[in-house]
Amino acid sequence: MPEPTTPTPWAAGGVGHSPIRPDAEAKVNGAFDYASDLAFDGMLWGHTLRSPHPRARIRSVDTGPALALPGVAAVLTAADVPGKLHYGLIEADQPVLAPGEVNYQGEAVAIIAADTLDLARRAAALIDVDYEILEPRCDAGEAVAAGDCFRYQPVRVGDPDTARAAVVVAREYEVGMQDQAPLGPESGVAVPAPDGGLVLHVATQWLHSDLDQIAPCLGLEPGRIHLTMAGIGGAFGAREDLSVQIHMAMLALRTGRPVKMMYDRAESFLGHVHRHPARMRYEHGADADGRLVYVKAHIVLDGGAYASTTEAVVGNAASLAVGPYNVEHVSIDAWGARTNNPPCGAMRGFGGVQTCFAYESQMDALADALGLDPLEIRRRNALAQGDQLITGQVVDAVDPDKAAAGAPFSPLRDLIDRFADLPVPPVPAGRDIVDLPGGTGNTTHGEGVRRGVGYGVGLKNICYSEGFDDYSTARVRLELGGPEHDGEPVAYVHTAAAEVGQGHWNLQQQIARTELGIRHVVLLPNDTKAGSAGSSSASRQSYMTGGAVKAACEAVRELWHDRDLADGPIEAVRVFRHRATKPMDPVTGQGESHVQLALCVHRATVDVDVELGLVKVVDLTCVQDVGTILNPVALEGQIHGGTAQGLGLAVMEEIITRDGHVANASFTDYLIPTILDMPPMRLRIVENADPDAPYGLRGAGEPPTLSSTPAIVAAIRDATGLPLTRVPVQPEHLTVRRPS
Amino acid sequence: MSTAAPARPAFHRPAAVDEAVRLLAEHPEAVPVAGGTDLMVAVNYRLARPEAMLDLTGVAELREWADEGDAVRIGSGVPYARITAELAAVLPGLAAAARTVGSPQIRNRGTLGGNLATASPAGDGHPPLLATGATVEIASAAGARRVPIGEFFLGPKRSALRPGELVTAVTVPKAAGPQQFLKVGTRNAMVIAVCSFALALDPAARPIDDVRGTADYRRHALAVCAARALRRVWAAAHERSPR
């Protein structure tokens, strides 16, 4: 047995390497079991009847004809909810089933269990709901004016009203409602347990948060409900809120049989929250050198009908409202409005995306007004070590080269300066039509095409903010393996952390290999028998569950010094917490509210067919500080994916609502980028390690989603000369409906 | 409303056209299916619930094209991928349109016959067929008939196809000069047309206003496309640069 005094990464399977993911083969060859693939003997199918109206009173619900259909086992309404009637991630305000009124189109009214999904759907059509249709409120501004908000958060610094500026830029911006568009639809199975409890197979971002919300609504002790993770087909925030969980559990309890629910694509669009659409009025004042003097902003986010995570999204929007720049005088007002639009909540970037589009557009407008280079104006205003965010939080970046004398280290200037070695790519010659705007549509052979270049910078908080007690738990057991492991030590790692496609399972194995100096690491199923891992959100899972697995491995390693594995396994459980944060002051917005800050800078090069208004992004170059690279391939995947979602918001992705009705709940009409829309990327990954974080890592999944959108829009502005204050930019905006 | 559990659709799989039309006469409720790229989406969205299906993929004669001298006769079951790969030299407009259909997987399955039978205004195959004056061949138990493409489309999703009839082939005149096909969508691939343009347009066509694009924009984009296509054809004919 090797003496484990000097742990070394196992070959190429440890931290810093890119071993093959444990789920790779099954996902590539189609054998991976996603939640929608689950099947149990004697299983019924559940289905949800949803409101066709954005706002209505329910006079009555007649379930009789549906129940009379042979093969229908149960039809349940609000009257059948066994426990609490409402649930929610932060505030329990969303009805399990609409009790007497509906507040958005798609709100769940009744649930059905039947022998087949088709039959359950037919039964749903037989339920007679008598609606009294009411006028929906669909304008977030009206809701704010009426004081109907989930949260209002101001930030006040200095005195922006008397501050003097040489140049002032004031504009209004709008961000459309983006969807996470995970490819795997919401799905799960509830299986009754012999003791009257339940086993729930769910695809969620946070098992324990689900359990905390499910149990009270079922009127069951949490200990009688066991959640186990089903295969997750993408999340991006869409799996933070509950979807099928309570409904299938109610049907399983009622029928005593396993019940599966699975949304189709249209229902998926109605059955999860979206990114908050935003209207923002920004005023930036700068001195003659382009240094920011003041920023005033009104930020209205449409939270839709129920709270979801709007409260936390508003906090991010307010605290990150000016980006990574120094400003002496600040007045920010951010609202999360309650309307009868679809509920909005978590999506990659989480409140940082909307304001990033606005503040970066403002930086470009100032640069334009002053005749400054867009990177130079950002350099001049970049936050440095010791500077404060507008919340008063001190930037605690550590100079990677401590010997360097002179000005305090600025993480943003460091990233910007790397573009000196990254020239704008030249126009490739002799290109195929698929390289031109319009792509395979053959709309241009070069006619009307103009090139533009633009930059965007994003600032994102990593981990949960504002005083939230954020932690993760890991159990590691080391034992001597059998012949299948060549008699070598095997580590069993047990957490509840969600593998949403980001490669977290792989990282857990890498950490165990590195910390224990062993080859074989077995991951136990993610379930609620483990302690909470927190959410696979906020770019936090490498930091938090990575930190917990590392700590548990270190504890096992210590014990291993004095013991022989032949005498029995060694086990340790560790809970990992990041440093504490504080809430924002409700009047001034002040407070050390964030844990870790992450920066990303994008440069976009676009070709625009200015006559047809079609856009082809031809290059995206990204410079991002990730602290320490833990897995190069997974990291590049995160940057590519985050960038692509930002591209989608820039030029195509929007859920269109009309009077509260969703008009494009399909992949036919809600477009996401294809391989012909997303160019190959050039990455410059910077490792300025964070001494507070495990391995010095910095959360990496979200920052690229912020900065790619403003970079692409800036490039389109450069090509067209149009102001472009709304995303997604549509062909109409570049041609017949140019915004002023 | 029926209270019985729905039966699985009956599935007929003929091996020849005469067998197909006989089955269709016996089972008028049967919906013909080839690539299924429209029908199965409708089924999945529960917009269609066929009681019976007539699978045409076993009919070998529908899956071939033939050179007829001045024209090419394309079996209704020839997938778009083959039109692009095999017919670009003689039918450049149609081949260019076929290239814009869906994704590679869709182009491997989807057929021109299905495009015609669905008769969607967004059908990518239609403009080049209209521009070149193609002829649609239709078969039924009563015999075969030929319909000029200009008389085939009666309106959105409505065609001259009668109950019991199948589209069996399209005869497309070979290109006598340069052809162009342009399709505008809000994505660079795999997108349903906002509008598209070949060398002939129905002057009575009125663009619609929907989530994919406004009528104003469609009108504008068509005008740009028309000008560009005409400039290109003119330039090609006179051996000049299109700009």
TrEMBL record, chain B:
Domain FAD-binding PCMH-type: 4-177
Source organism of this protein record: Glycomyces terrestris
One example GO MF annotation: oxidoreductase activity
Matches recorded under Pfam families: FAD_binding_5
SUPFAM superfamilies reported in the protein's UniProt record: CO dehydrogenase flavoprotein C-terminal domain-like (SSF55447), FAD-binding/transporter-associated domain-like (SSF56176)
Record's protein name: FAD-binding protein
Lineage: Bacteria, Bacillati, Actinomycetota, Actinomycetes, Glycomycetales
Oxidoreductase recorded as keyword: yes
Coiled coil: none
Keyword Oxidoreductase: yes
Keywords attached to this entry: FAD, Flavoprotein, Oxidoreductase
Top-level lineage group: Bacteria
